[in-house]
Task: inverse folding
């Protein structure tokens, strides 16, 4: 498992504190995924739920945890395997029927809303903004670069 430097831990603690809306040095379970993403991780909601011990929806909204409980969870997420640029490009290449480096935007929208961790229409619109050309095609290598930079 990853060991963080004291400087990193201090940065993480500071970021964690920004999510503390009550001032009790704790955050709600439903903020944990957002904090992890703010710290450069990219866990799925399923991963976070599992790490939190599969809490109920009520627990997600009402239970809180402090930084000392959060840090081991962040270490777990940091240790999860991560997809690379090449992995994502290869995955999208499957939908490139003409072999020209593009996929149809409509098809990509369907994939994003139905496969894996399903995205809603608002999330998809936000992700796809400015990615489709005049023909409704998406250059998937540029799209992956865009996603990985967000």
Result:
């Amino acid at each position: 498992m990853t060991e963080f430097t004291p400087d990193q831990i201090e940065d993480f603690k500071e970021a964690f504190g920004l999510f503390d809306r009550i001032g009790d040095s704790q955050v709600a379970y439903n903020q944990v995924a957002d904090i992890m993403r703010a710290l450069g991780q990219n866990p799925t909601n399923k991963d976070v739920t599992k790490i939190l011990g599969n809490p109920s929806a009520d627990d997600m909204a009402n239970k809180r945890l402090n930084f000392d409980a959060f840090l081991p969870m962040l270490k777990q997420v940091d240790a999860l395997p991560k997809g690379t640029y090449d992995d994502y490009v290869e995955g999208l290449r499957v939908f490139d029927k003409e072999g020209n480096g593009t996929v149809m935007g409509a098809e990509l929208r369907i994939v994003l809303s139905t496969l894996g961790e399903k995205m809603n229409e608002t999330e998809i619109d936000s992700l796809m903004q400015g990615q489709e050309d005049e023909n409704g095609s998406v250059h998937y290598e540029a799209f992956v670069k865009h996603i990985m930079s967000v």
Summary: The mean pLDDT is 92.
